[in-house]
Amino acid sequence: MDKKRLKKEQKKVYKKEQKKDTKGQKKEKKDKIKKTIYFPCLGYNMGGENDMQIQHDAKMNKRIANAIERWGMKNSLLTDSRIYFNGMAYCYNSNGEKRIIEDIEAEDYLEYGDNRLVSMSFEGGLGDVMREHWCVPAYEVLWNELWNLLSDFGHYFELGNHWNLTVYPV
Predict the structure, then answer these.
(1) Who has the most CB within 10 Å: 39, 41, 68, 96?
(2) pLDDT by residue (tens digit) across 56-103?
């Protein structure tokens, strides 16, 4: 994404957020929007102005979170799980009942979570799939479905621990 287009997108998002916030919160939101994600493992250097940067995209995060949610519901995997994105989380209890938590950050709960991306914590069915996909054929099928689902968005996931993951752009 070229710099002019990136700045335009930042300004659009900032103007929308500015209308919602009080005057004291404007600077904090502006600083948050300007954050970018660097991927040194992909050959991008951290730091300088001319380095390759991937800008956080709240709409994409929501699309990914909703797609994961639909997939998880279809396969009855979301018990005792949370999907963190855009400062909120879809939270499922042990009965699979959903509630939405506003104003929550993945980094407060997950060592490897990232507030700018989609992160998840899980026990229950999804936890079993993530931990045992290599030895249970049915879980391997589900693991591959999730991998392919995220690939369709141009993303992939990495496990932080055996009970959480974060979704990254390719």
Answers:
(1) 68
(2) 589 999 999 999 999 999 999 999 999 999 999 999 999 989 999 999
Partners of residue 89 on adjacent β-strands: 84, 101
| 92 touches 142 (CB < 8 A) | no
> What does the DSSP 8-state code read for residue 58?
H
pTM exceeds 0.90, yes or no = no
H-run or E-run covering 27: helix 26-33
List strand residue ranges (DSSP E) for the chain, in order.
Answer: 36-37, 54-55, 81-85, 88-92, 98-102, 118-122, 155-161, 164-169
Domain ranges of the chain: 3-55, 58-169
CA atoms within 13 A on the CB side of 94: 0
Alpha-carbon span 120 to 71, nearest angstrom: 14
Contact 14, 29 (CB under 8 A): yes
